[in-house]
Amino acid sequence: MNLSIILCTQHKGGAGKTTLAVHLAGILATQLNRILLIDCDTQRNAWFFYFGSKANTPLEMKDYNNRLSIIWNPEREPIKRIADYETYDHIILDMSTPLPETVKVIVDNNPDLVFIPVSRHPWAIEGLSDTLPVISQLEEFAGFSPEVIIVPLGSSKQTINRKLEIISRLPSSYKVANRMKDLNKEVDKALNEREFVWNYPGLENLNSYFGSLLS
């Protein structure tokens, strides 16, 4: 299996980056893959989800189990400086909010997949106006050509598509994934309780939903 590098990013905070990152890591780790989850956020929420504490030292790495490791990388060091590519099947980056930091991570790591979550909040969809043109520019000037997947975490596909129609510059390869219904309260509860959201009664289908994002 060839290594894939997956970036979860959004220009606006609270749109679902960490939700995506920890659940995608959870899906991949059940498929007998070796996963490295890189928490690039100073809040260390991905680290907390798995360990119930916050990393104390930059570049601290810890194994969650024999298939998943997490490293805290607040300075956004390039992957090649902090990890051995040969060890992993998938590397997932949970990116902090500032757009210049996202640009740095993209240029340094050349991800194969870029997931952009969009919650139902208006500011989340507005983040597309900043993030998508920047990715398009990086394609032109840095030879960067990822597959971009916009993930409606509560927002409607219709609303997102209307927004895309008025953004002047878009990545060459992008798609809008199927919508997850608005489960903001349920997702917040799951993250706070450090549980995958599909482990709650009535939400079991979300395991298939997050898995479909990777297919």
Report on this structure.
The protein has 8 helices and 8 strands; from the N terminus they run βαβαββαβαβαβαβαα. The protein has 215 residues and is α/β, with parallel strands linked by helices. The chain has one domain: Rossmann fold, CATH 3.40.50.300. An 8-stranded mixed beta sheet has the order 3-4-2-5-1-6-7-8, with helices on both faces. Strand 7 (147-153), helix 6 and strand 8 (174-176) form a beta-alpha-beta unit. The radius of gyration is 16 Å and the shape is globular. The protein starts with a strand and ends with a helix. The model has no long low-confidence stretch (mean pLDDT 92).
Oligomer: single chain
Helix content: 25-40%
Low-confidence stretches: none
Q: Which term fits the overall shape?
A: globular
Q: What is the CATH architecture term? A: 3-Layer(aba) Sandwich
Beta-strand content bin: 15-25%
Strand line-up across the major sheet: 3-4-2-5-1-6-7-8
Can you count the beta strands?
Answer: 8
CATH top level is: Alpha Beta
Largest sheet: 8 strands, mixed
Features:
215 residues; alpha/beta; Rossmann fold; eight-stranded mixed beta sheet
Compact overview of the structure:
This protein has 8 helices and 8 strands, in the order βαβαββαβαβαβαβαα. It has 215 residues and is of the alpha/beta class. The relative contact order is 0.18.
List the helices and strands and how they pair.
Blueprint: E1 4-8, H1 17-29, E2 35-39, H2 45-51, E3 61-63, E4 68-72, H3 79-82, E5 90-94, H4 99-109, E6 113-119, H5 122-142, E7 147-153, H6 157-165, E8 174-176, H7 184-192, H8 206-213
Parallel strand pairs: 1-5, 1-6, 2-4, 2-5, 6-7, 7-8
Antiparallel strand pairs: 3-4
Helix pairs in contact: 1-2, 1-8, 4-5, 5-6
